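Self-study notes.
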Amino acid sequence: MKVFGVSESDSNRLMGRDWLWLSLICSFGLGSVAIQAGWILALFGGYLFWRKGAVVIDPSLRQMWFWLGCLAIPALLSLFDSALIGRSGRTLFRMLSFGLAAVVLIQIPPSAPALRKVTIGVALAVIFFCVDGIVQKLTGQNMIGNTLWSDQFSPARITGFLGINFAWVLMVLSPWLFEGCRLLDGRGFAYWLAIPLLFAAVILGGSRASGLLLGISVLSYATLIGFRLGMAASLKFLVPVFVSLLGSMVILAMNPELGDRWLAVMGIFPGGAGDVSEILSWRPYLWDAAIALFLEHPINGVGIRAFGVSSEALIVGYGVADHIPGRAYNWSPHLSVLEVAADLGIVGLLGYAILLTTLVRWLISAPMVAIAPGLTALMALFPLGSTLSLFSARVSAVAWISIATALAFAKVASHSRRR
């Protein structure tokens, strides 16, 4: 019997392929590793595309290229009058490279028996990342000696193995943790170990934006499994989530420095105290600049990844340039939907809306094995994302490779059902 042209007797080759898949997904948290892996896959994918032109009839690849086109076409249109045409061109080229990377991932998927093991393996890796980060926070260094990272904006920040965006990575990978726990232990006991560790790591990581998206990830996963598997499955997941949330409140109460940072957001509500802009790390000024640029360039925006240089005069005029880390070249609106609006205009917003809407609709009916990578992509692309630039190399690598992974997993599952 053959599965995607590989006989069952080739067990060693399949095992090697499955380990490569597990390594690829775990690399999502390692930043530059995932980015470089994307380029290598793109080169190999270009070769496969040249040698096997018939891949264009693969419905999974056509779906991938449709979703990619939702942002790539607006990005192309933004090139004509981009404020930073060189960077816009490079960003578009990198985006298109993921279409070639998808050729490899969808044409050479993991074996059907390995889908469950890969998902559980990624979940265990996420647990390891959580424990490593917590150890670093408590002792000052992680398991290999990496120390806490500090600068004038972020004192004593967890990095672990994942870098300065520690909490964001855990949030994005959280669907793998949830689904891996469900597959590992149908009674739900695994949730009680893993979810408290995840919440503690994100809380200690100090990223409030990532904490918000973790809540959205939890609700999205609970809704999907409730719809697919029934309310009992959803409640089995939500009860330890609720208990972990209460435990997080205890952590904040016992750590005034950390608690003050998280609870400061209460000051933005009516009756709260404090300057809203300062509480939100000066993001409102970036949001105002993004809206202003969108109104000035409503059709195709200022160009993909050109927000920083385009907004510099506005930010300097607001008098807050010294409060925003990094050079203006690397600034972003710190809100994904506004980044699309400023960089790509109305055309980009329309493509972004089509991408998100069709991705959610696909997830609702996709095989269960595709839920973890599909939700990972959705969290990376979520409109309220405010940690990293939506079009940055790190977010792009995670988002588009996750989409290709979801399509590859769904293809394997569908093929297995037809056997």
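Second protein, same conventions, sequence then structure:
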Amino acid sequence: MNRLLQVRKEYGEPFVDVVKDFAEMGYSRRFVAGMLGFNVQHFIDTLNRFGLQKHFRLHRDMRPECKSPGWPRGKPNPRNNRYSDEDIFSEVRRCKTYHDFARGAKMSMSLVEKRFGWRNARRLALR
């Protein structure tokens, strides 16, 4: 049976009315999709098809259980380690190949790739 028909049968109202009611109560699209048993992307596509997106509230007006908790105000947010160029070069010197670095380095390969590129980092490290 079609999911829209299952919702209609379960709630005793048309799908559109069920979704509008949840939206008016302040629930998020993701929350309603989960409650109705939809895949989130499929649910959003269905909302677009029926023109129901406009009934959902902005994040600040949603019910508390639909909001992500975020980071507590006033509490310091720890950041990832910041590596100096010399830290990166020493790690590149320690690891002989690209694959050794990717498997065993204390930092991510993407850091080296973004900052220097592997070949350039290797050349600079061995100077």
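Instructor comment on the second fold: The chain has two domains: 3-64, 85-125.
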